[in-house]
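FYI - complex with 2-deoxy-2-amino glucitol-6-phosphate, inputs then prediction.
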Amino acid sequence: MCGIVGYAGKKEVIPVLIDGLRRLEYRGYDSAGVAISEKGKLITAKRKGKLEFLDSALNKTSFSGTVGIGHTRWATHGEPTIRNAHPHLDCRKEIALVHNGIIENYQQLRDALKKEGHKFVSKTDSEVIVHLIEKYYKSSLEKAVLSAIKRLKGSYAIAVICKNEPHRVVAARCGSPLIVGLGKEENFVASDVPAILTYTRNVIYLDDYEVAVLDEKKVTVKNIKGRLVEKKTEKIKWDINAAEKGGYPHFMLKEIEEQPQVIENIIHRRIDLKKRIFFDDINLSTKELKSIKKITIVACGSAWHAGLIGKYLIEKYAGVSVEVDFSSEYRYRSRIAGGRACLADKRELLIAVSQSGETADTLAAMKLARHKRIKILSICNVVGSTIVRESDGVIYTHAGPEIGVASTKAYLAQVSIFYLLAVHLAFIKRIIGRNTERRLVGEFMEMPALVQKIIKDTSLIEKCAEKYKGVNSFLYLGRNINYPTALEGALKLKEISYIHAEGCGAGEMKHGPIALVDEKLPSVCIAVKCDVYEKMMSNIQEIKARSGIVISVATERDREIAKYSDMVIYVPKVNEDLSCIITVVPLQILAYYMAVKRGCDVDKPRNLAKSVTVE
Ligand code: AGP
């Protein structure tokens, strides 16, 4: 997510802005910039890439001022470039703005402002805000901001400065976090606590539709109607390291708990008010999508598990044959390896799934597909990453930066995108009509609340971790669309707690894995109420008959399964095809607490990297 810092006080503002942005780096970014008021002028500096590029550029200048705003950009609309970096300026270069969030109606606003003569220089949604403020600016920046935000749809946290009011910063928020820091003869605004904790522990948390005006002496907060609002000052008790995780002990737990919001973001971006699905950057015409006869999905690790779920869903809903390959294995497929790679049927599509967009194996697989002139669509979480640039079209997961090495929210976002893509393809191929699309989309829109319900109370899962933290092997069993969930649960456990864990299709138990079962081996069985429930119950009874330990993930109020389980983790009842979104969350949480209780480095497990950029 983007990072915002603003300052009004007596200190030289540039070091304060750079220091604040540095403490927000954990949020992930691809460009940075500052704007300061200097002797009645507005000075801006922006750089692509790391913060030190901006810092060293500023060190070569004699810029000096005591009021300013800064920004680190996590690209959502528009590639990471200097033009798209914040701050953005109005036409007269007298107002500078930084923004975190998504303006959903930016296109209409941009068109209307262009008609009124405004000139745009970036491809971002954010730039419309500063031109709106310019449109409404008479003699009060606060009033202009109040008028402008009334026109915005979507989420925003903004900080604005103006040449004609050089001593103040105006800030506003809706849907994106923004805090005000209260210092001695200095005041701050920031996206998150770490940016200002060096200077003050006294903060005000702005609420939606509130506007703050700060100068070195005072801070006022008003609501969208322009009425003064009394705000409580909170005292931050975290130390600076904990604060980067927003008070969470680990990024992984923070990212697990962000999952309802991640799905909400996907709903905002991919589903319109009539519950119709749309993909803006897919770059494949309806005709091309309709003609697709074969899909190959390439990915690694968790992304590969999401690809397996994509296979179940796309084949079931859209009737398109799907193969799923480890990226690292794709190159050995006989039809490609050796000799001349024959050109593929143009109705074939390759889907590359990657959180980081930099995984070398997946890039190598894409190169082979390119060689065969297969169209490539990527499902990716990093705007402008290499995999995206090497693709014909992209569906961004918009999960925000995922810092923990173990993928959680990005995986859930990939699964969610596959669900919507499968329904979308089914509609385009006329296999389902609008009513069915609306029904399936409606069921998906319930997911944030259901995931939140699981996250809200993890006490039983923590008990389970405490009970089994000493074992040295686990089995994870699932069938059908929860077979990949079993694989993902096993990967989560092994990669952060270093306990050996094997995920397998429950139907495979009799073909080998059941030999492992004894009184020391826990088997996590995903047995929610669905078509394969009875078969899962048979697997559970076979394990119990051999004194195995059974930890079931089951549908709430299922009392029968408790008779055969040592522990039952209940999840809300959902449509079978969406159960994979619900059932993986307790497995993420179980792995997390197992790792914590074993004293492992949860966010940076041994031997692993967040992005495997070598083959
Ligand atoms: C998942 O928890 C692991 N961190 C790893 O398997 C990861 O999913 C894999 O390396 C793929 O990474 P990517 O999604 O960035 O391509």
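Residues 409-428 form the longest helix (20 residues). Residues 300-303, 354-356, 359, 362, 405-407, 491, 495, 611-612 surround 2-deoxy-2-amino glucitol-6-phosphate (CB under 6 Å).
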